[in-house]
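quick one, 121 residues, struct below
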Amino acid sequence: MEAPNHEQLFDLSYLNQIFQGNQDMINNIIQLFLEQVPEYIKEMQECVDRNDLLSLHPLAHKAKSSIAMLGLKSMEGNIVRIEQDSKHNRNLDDLPELVRDVRSECDIVYTQLRQVITGAA
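---
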């Protein structure tokens, strides 16, 4: 069964600008994202599972810059909300759904970015 075809969720224009199109450097940043961000999001899900919502903000903070560099606007907005709401102990009922949304988007982006660095995009 073929995976559904999703529109590209990332925007590499910022990385292209700062690295002047150096694909090796861009791929290094993508690889760093692929290694780190899914782990942060997994840990965020574990916080939700044990109802430790106030521990989400350091994880969201760690993921935020990588998400921003890859132009993941929707995910970035959710990560900022998770970080701020967890840190300030507000809207806690919204956090599990936000984490779920970020996880879902991360799964799609992970596949898309793997294709970029393997040259399949």
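The domain at 22-118 is CATH 1.20.120 (Four Helix Bundle (Hemerythrin (Met), subunit A)).
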